[in-house]
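pasting for ref
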Amino acid sequence: LTGRRRWETLSLVRSQVDLEKATITKPGSETNNSKAHIIHLSGPAVTEVRQTAPVTGLTFTTTGVDTRTR
């Protein structure tokens, strides 16, 4: 639904999602060119995030634990 790679979507942090603007903003610290990247979300993607995602932490998780730092 987003056009992103699976690992990019699974590592998405909720603070990067703006449901009002229907965007994901990937900070420059996570891109190769050091510039922020904005991904526009489709209506179905926004609905999915609203229905399933917690307000903080990882957007998509089954455990609620951020394992990226382990």
